[in-house]
Design brief:
Helix content is 23%, strand content 39%. The protein is of the alpha+beta class. The chain has one domain. A ten-stranded antiparallel β-sheet has the order 3-6-7-8-9-10-1-2-4-5. A hairpin with a 1-residue loop joins β8 and β9. It is globular.
Length: 223
C-alpha cells in the first residue's frame, strides 16, 4: 500500500475510534417533585382507611427522575415513557427513580409489579407531565390491596383471594399537574455502550491494525 493509501486507512481508523464514544453518550436527566391530594368530597376514603389516618383532602408528595431526551414533543397526545427505556437505568436507584408517600403508605419504583408493567411509566400529555403508570400490592389491616396510578388518577382496591382487584375504589386521589424542585440528576454509573458504538470501536481498532501493518510493509519495501 502506498503512503497515501496508508494515510487514508489511518484517518478512517481514527475517525471510527473518535466517533464511537459519541454514539454511547449518556442522556441527561432531571429529578422533580410532584404533589397531589385525596379527592375532597363524599365517598373518597372508605373503611378500613377512613378513621385510620386517611382523610379527604390529605396531601401527598413524591419525587421521580425523568429522561430529558425522551420527553415527547408538544402535540403528541398521551404518551407513556417507561423507565426501562432509560439508557442509564442501571445508575438510578429505585427511590430516586420514583417514590411517594401518602399518609402511612410509602412506595418506590422497586415496588412496581413487573408482571403488570415493565417498569414505572411517566405519562405525558402533549409533552407535559401528566402522571404515572404504577401498580403495586400492599397489606393493610390484615387484608391485601392494590395501589394503582393511571395518569393523574390514584385508586386503592381490595384484592380477592386470587389476587384480583374487587369492589369499588376505597381511596381516590389525584396528582396535581405541576412539578417543582426540578434539578439536574446524574446517574451513578456510566452508560453501557450501544451495539452501534461497539461496532464503531471494533472498526476503529481494526483500521488501526491495518494502518500499522501497511506502514511496516512500506518500511521494509524501502530498505
Amino acid at each position: 500500500m502506498n503512503t497515501n493509501g496508508g494515510r487514508i486507512v489511518l484517518a478512517l481508523a481514527m475517525s471510527g475510534l473518535l466517533a464511537a464514544p459519541g454514539l454511547a453518550a449518556a442522556d441527561t436527566y432531571t429529578k422533580a417533585t410532584f404533589t397531589g391530594q385525596i379527592n375532597p368530597g363524599d365517598a373518597n376514603v372508605q373503611p378500613p382507611f377512613s378513621g385510620a389516618g386517611f382523610t379527604q383532602s390529605d396531601p401527598f408528595s413524591g419525587t421521580f427522575v425523568y429522561d430529558n431526551n425522551l420527553v415527547p414533543a408538544a402535540g403528541s397526545g398521551f404518551v407513556n415513557v417507561f423507565a426501562s427505556t432509560f439508557p442509564d437505568i442501571a445508575g438510578i436507584s429505585n427511590p430516586d427513580l420514583f417514590s411517594m408517600t401518602l399518609d402511612s403508605l410509602s412506595f418506590n419504583a422497586g415496588d412496581n409489579l413487573t408482571t403488570e408493567l415493565p417498569s414505572v411509566g411517566i405519562q405525558y400529555k402533549n409533552g407535559q407531565f401528566n402522571g404515572f403508570e404504577f401498580i403495586t400490592d400492599f397489606n393493610f389491616a390484615s387484608n391485601s390491596y392494590q395501589f394503582r396510578i393511571d395518569g393523574p388518577v390514584i385508586t386503592v382496591e381490595l384484592l380477592d383471594p386470587s389476587g384480583n382487584p374487587t369492589g369499588s375504589s376505597l381511596i381516590n386521589a389525584t396528582i396535581n399537574g405541576g412539578l417543582s424542585n426540578q434539578t439536574p440528576f446524574t446517574p451513578t454509573s456510566p452508560p453501557v455502550p450501544e451495539p452501534a458504538a461497539w461496532a464503531m470501536m471494533l472498526m476503529g481498532f481494526a483500521g488501526l491494525g491495518m494502518a500499522m501493518r501497511s506502514r511496516r510493509r512500506s518500511a521494509f519495501a524501502n530498505l
